[in-house]
Amino acid sequence: MDENFKIIEEKTLELTFQVEDESHGVFNALRHILMQNPDVEYAVYNIDHPLTGKPEMTIKTKRGKRPRIALKQAAEELQKESSDFKKLIDEAL
Description:
The protein has 93 residues and is of the alpha+beta class. It is built from two helices and four strands, in the order ββαββα. A four-stranded antiparallel β-sheet has the order 1-2-4-3, covered by helices on one side. β1 and β2 form a beta hairpin. The longest helix is centred in the C-terminal third of the chain and has 26 residues, at 67-92. The protein is globular.
């Protein structure tokens, strides 16, 4: 596992993790994708200080669903959307 990614707390239906060197933009996009997943009850993030804080996100899933799986799916979707957006810009410029 990457040293910039740290699990703070993990329960059956809830996962709280921290990622160093990431911004509001990435976490907001990830939260948006997670909230579109019908298996996710909520996804929230917090950054204590905008310049020096480490973003921390909590994902809570519905009964029988695992937050790690929801996170992995959301990360894959974010990567796909970012690649599609980059391709669009590259073609336009």
